[in-house]
Amino acid sequence: MFRSVRHMIYDLIEWRSQILSGTLPQDELKELKKKVTAKIDYGNRILDLDLVVRDEDGNILDPEQTSTISLFRAHEIASKQVEERLQEEKSQKQNIDINRQAKFAATPSFALFVNLKNVVCKIGEDAEVLMSLYDPLESKFISENYLVRWSSCGLPKDIDRLHNLRAVFTDLGSKDLKRDKISFVCQIVRVGRMELRDNNTRKLTSGLRRPFGVAGTSGMH
């Protein structure tokens, strides 16, 4: 509602500057005034404010000089015009929603939400935990990796992400649903020494990535 009203106010400010410029021809000025009054009446309606009745030129009718019947008929006309505008806006929105639904139905997309609770595996050093989707029949990965860096003390390296390790594998379309099986694979890569039992300080290495373990589901249908 705020964005809609803000947009209308910007339009009114622009149109007001055009009217005050005095450069518009008489016919364009008349049409612009009609646009301004229509926009004001529409804004008052969606904000549940009073409806202002006007004459054909967009001027506010003076109740002291206008009969009750004329005011009533002018009010009916103005109310009908605003109602038609609301129905038009509603119809356009419904058409947009229908088009979006049709487009979505034509190109379906699905997602897999993953929430990593803990890594129950004694690694001994820092590690990288990689999760991805795999097609066992085609022997290939069908998604990018979700990477979590795990410390040697059994917690995420980024401690701020503790209990908030979540990922969404998106854009799984109809082609992926037609696959016979999809496996969820988790790989663990140890980051540190060449050998865990290497205690020789002269040969001590660090930062080496060594495959440590892998796990996966038998297949999701």
Automatic annotation (TrEMBL):
Please tell me one Gene Ontology term that the record gives under cellular component.
plasma membrane
Coiled-coil parts of chain: 72-99
One BP annotation, GO: small GTPase-mediated signal transduction
Q: Out of the domains of life, which is the source?
A: Eukaryota
Record-level Gene Ontology MF annotations: guanyl-nucleotide exchange factor activity; small GTPase binding
Key words, A-Z: Coiled coil
Q: Where is the Dedicator of cytokinesis N-terminal domain?
A: 2-205
Q: In the UniProt record, does the keyword Coiled coil occur?
A: yes
Which Pfam families does this UniProt record tie to the protein? DOCK_N
Q: Which Gene3D superfamilies match?
A: Dedicator of cytokinesis N-terminal subdomain
Q: Sorted alphabetically, which PANTHER family does this protein's record hold?
A: DEDICATOR OF CYTOKINESIS, DEDICATOR OF CYTOKINESIS PROTEIN 1
Q: What is this protein called?
A: DOCK1 protein
**Which species?**
Dicrurus megarhynchus
Q: Which gene encodes it?
A: Dock1_4
